Amino acid sequence: MATTAHAVHAPPNSDLPPAPIETREGADSIRRRLRRERAALSDACLREHSRSICEHARRCLRWLRPGTLAGYFGIRGEIDLTPLLIQQARAGVRIAMPVLDRHRTGRMHFRSWHPGEALCRNAFAIPEPCPAARRIWRREITAVLVPLVAFDAQGHRIGMGGGYYDRYFARRRLGQSRRPRLIGVAHDFQQVAGIAAQPWDVRLDGVITESGWQFFSAD
User: Fold this and answer.
1) Residue 165 marked in a binding site
2) CA of 25: how far to CAs of 22, 30, 148, 159, in Å?
3) Which superfamily, per CATH, for 27-215?
4) Does the annotation list 168 as a binding residue?
5) Known binder of ligand: residue 162?
6) Among residues 78, 2, 1, which one has the least CA distance to residue 41?
7) CB-based contacts of 32: which residues, under 8 Å, 6+ apart?
8) 158 marked ligand binding residue
9) Which of 139, 183, 187, 193 is 20 to 30 A distant from 209 in Cα terms?
């Protein structure tokens, strides 16, 4: 993963592995392949990657200093961010977690979550805050830890295919100056050489893997 500087002067980042060789796979093929690889990780490997990523994320967040941090509950080989979210909550950061909209297909919003609170399960059996939790609005969120299936060195991302994050953080809904920092969370092997971005795709500002973290150029 090549290290680049963010337009707003990111601090020095960890040395990261070189970008993988070029691939001509389409998004659907990449998604299937990397989901299989991710699901095949051993429990020990997933724990180690999660531990490393949570530590890198703590360092990154010390620089970002978010007032409200949006996270997610990892499933099927995704990074477990729970220890990080608990640590941030204890440090006084407000935690927001994604909730699927029950009335609008393909939409989501965020609600507050405090460690120890009961969780509900959505249609995909993913834990999420229950309806009684306070809703957190876009303008309140300052940094977002974004799940993904693949990413490239320009900050383009392939998700699960539902388009939830792209819709929620679309530029037309929230001006660039007010948009929160979008930080992808992934295993090193999820980096690909290039992703064909669509007009509606929202670029990541940075990414954290088990090897370190970086911010992407704004160009």
Assistant:
1) yes
2) 9, 6, 17, 15
3) NagB/RpiA/CoA transferase-like (3.40.50.10420)
4) no
5) yes
6) 78
7) none
8) yes
9) 139
